[in-house]
Amino acid sequence: MATLLRKIGLIRLHNRDTEDPKHHHNHRGGGGGQQSASLRGKGGGKSGGHKQQQQQQQQQHPGGAGDASPGPGKGKSKRSAELAARDKQPQPAAGAAGAAGAAGAGGPRERAAGARAGPGPAVAAAAAGGSLVPAARQQHCTQVRSRRLMKELQDIARLSDRFISVELVNESLFDWNVKLHQVDKDSVLWQDMKETNTEFILLNLTFPDNFPFSPPFMRVLSPRLENGYVLDGGAICMELLTPRGWSSAYTVEAVMRQFAASLVKGQGRICRKAGKSKKSFSRKEAEATFKSLVKTHEKYGWVTPPVSDG
Known about the structure:
Elements: H1 2-17, H2 21-60, H3 65-68, H4 72-88, H5 94-104, H6 108-117, H7 121-157, E1 164-168, E2 175-180, H8 188-195, E3 201-206, E4 217-222, E5 225-226, H9 252-265, E6 269-270, H10 283-300
């Protein structure tokens, strides 16, 4: 039995080996060909559909399918190009960058509100800083001048000999009318005052902003005087009334006593000429005369009288 089975197996092996190899190859290749053909058909259909879709996209977007859907490599290269372009752009200055950052902070509403609001208080304070210092300095000078003049008024009011008296012009502390009631009683000027019933010599003093560090401007108002170092317009030729000869230690009382002495020394008289005696002095003429005499004395100097002359 075993021998019979072996013979049957050998016969089957012989029959398989003796079959036509071409037929065997065609039979197997035919199945594979059909299968590959069907696969090619499916792949061709897919590729054909894909090509048609690309053509439609190209017609809709002339820039090409690559621009519509760039691949990973193209996207990276485009991003690198943008970064390189940014690096090449010039950087703004630090101040401009800070201002731009401050302006750009917040949303559109915040930026619009900031633009309408204008510069902040710090910027406004910096812009106005140039005018704050002169204003403070002027206020300080006004306080110094006011305190000094108030003290001067109090001292004059306490004078026992009633040498001078003061009236404020339009209630201004910085504009005085001063009445000189007394001069040397042995002088011709005193005799003129008695004969003309002149009770006092009226002067006007205006005090500058930086008084007492600058002298007041002093001029004669009435009566009209001749000589005695009184010039056109009522200007007074005295060195201590100039910036060069002035000292902040001088008081109004001291200045008036010096003026009374100069009138007597310079042989001052009350003008009695017809027509001329009634003509009043003017401030404009006095200022012009005083400026002229100051220039003259700065050029040629001031003459110091001998001690014997007082």
